[in-house]
């Protein structure tokens, strides 16, 4: 899959991470209760991977040791 380098400030990354974590929570636990909702496990997997990547980048930027696996 193609990777796209992006430069963000730490504050921008933190705000983006907060939003995507909230959206992922909604996808997992709220949307599934809406009548007519159709599951999309691949989209959920990709979203979870993106959140993990953002979390790792944020931790690294804050000076925490990260495992290197996303």
User: pLDDT under 50 segments (min length 5)?
Assistant: none
| Strand and helix order | HH
| Mean of all residue-level pLDDT scores | 89
Query: How many alpha or pi helices?
Result: 2
**How widely separated are the two ends?**
14 Å
Strand content: under 5%
Helix content: 55-70%
Number of strands: 0
Which class best fits the helix and strand makeup? Answer: mainly alpha
Which sheet architecture does the biggest sheet show? none
Written account of the structure:
The protein has 2 helices and no strands. The two termini are 14 Å apart. It is 60% helix and 0% strand. It is elongated and about 45 Å long. With 70 residues, it is mainly α.
Q: What are the defining features of this structure?
A:
70 residues; 2 helices; mainly alpha; elongated
Secondary structure layout:
Elements: H1 10-30, H2 41-61
Q: In brief, what are we looking at here?
A:
By secondary structure, this protein is mainly α.
